[in-house]
């Protein structure tokens, strides 16, 4: 169930990226968002018992990691669908990652997305704690 929840979360983040017009092709944003959601769900799992200031910091770091991963995956899927030579992929992907992460900060979207990231992380951690077996 946790995998489904993280995939659904990633799907919603992919759709949000599409709606914010940073990922114009929804057919690329959805699979990229699903994959990034799964990866981020695994990455944040061990951090579920930290105090809230650390959780807020981890959610900000996680937001930037997720944005960079999303940019890389979105670009890779886009490049795979195009006729670009494989030798150009690393530079195109790196430029996309750089553009997405700097754009997050410079556009001010970080102020909107950080609370959403924190709420998303809190939901995932709550579900993880809830689904753990309590010893008798």
How does this model look, in words?
It is a single chain. This protein is mainly α. It has one domain. Helices cover 79% and strands 0% of the residues. It has five helices and no strands. The chain has helices at 2-19, 26-44, 52-81, 89-106, 109-131. The protein is globular, with a radius of gyration of 16 Å. The chain starts with a helix and ends in a 5-residue tail after the last helix. The model has no long low-confidence stretch (mean pLDDT 88).
List the helices and strands and how they pair.
Layout: H1 2-19, H2 26-44, H3 52-81, H4 89-106, H5 109-131
Which range does the strand content fall in? under 5%
- What is the SS-derived class? mainly alpha
Largest sheet: none
**Mean pLDDT over the full residue set:** 88
The first-to-last residue Cα distance is 23 Å
Tally of discrete structural domains: 1
Shape: globular
Please bin the fraction of helical residues.
over 70%
Low-confidence stretches: none
What labels describe this entry?
globular; 136 residues
In short:
The chain is mostly helical. It has helices spanning 2-19, 26-44, 52-81, 89-106, 109-131.
